[in-house]
Amino acid sequence: MPVERLIINNDVSELRRVTDWLRASAAASALPAEILHKLDVCANEALINIISYAYEDTRRHEITVELNATPHGASLVIRDDGKPFDLLAAPATAAPASLEEAAVGGLGIRLIRRLATRLYYRRENGVNVLSLETERTLQPSDA
């Protein structure tokens, strides 16, 4: 599969377009539903954080999302020109013991870390580059 690319604006309404694009791209590449689910959750969590916190102005910014099938899953690369933010260096939040103890925010990063097999971050020419890889979970029949 060649790298599929989508450019969105820093607007929450674009998240639906990302999900639709991921579904179409995953179907065209015969990616399993498990991989699609992981990619969709990770992409939406990362993008909502970028859209909500990365920009200090109200101007339109472009965010690039790239998808590439790999032998065991897929990789997703998200590029934005917002404030530097290394998801890998962000402090881990503790899992709440109950719903009543759950704080608003912070769980998206935890979720991305849990669903992604590998995560990479770099700042390149004023651009945040978040790369994540997902792999399908091996079932006993796969071994």
Written account of the structure:
The protein has three helices and five strands; from the N terminus they run βααββαββ. The chain is α+β, with helices and mostly antiparallel strands. The protein has a single domain (4-142), classed as 2-Layer Sandwich (Heat Shock Protein 90), CATH 3.30.565.10. A five-stranded antiparallel β-sheet has the order 1-2-3-5-4, with helices on one face. A hairpin with a 2-residue loop joins strand 2 (62-70) and strand 3. The chain is globular, with a radius of gyration of 16 Å. The mean pLDDT is 89.
Radius of gyration: 16 Å
Number of helices: 3
Major sheet: arrangement of strands: 1-2-3-5-4
- Give the full name of the CATH homologous superfamily: Histidine kinase-like ATPase, C-terminal domain
- Overall shape: it is globular
Main pleated-sheet profile: 5 strands, antiparallel
Give the domain tally: 1
CATH class: Alpha Beta
**Structural class of the helices, strands and pairings?**
alpha+beta
Order of SSEs: EHHEEHEE
Mean pLDDT figure = 89
* β-strand amount: 25-35%
Query: What fold name stands as the CATH topology?
Result: Heat Shock Protein 90
| pLDDT < 50 stretches | none
Distance between the termini: 25 Å
Topology, number of strands: 5
Helix content: 25-40%
Return the CATH architecture: 2-Layer Sandwich
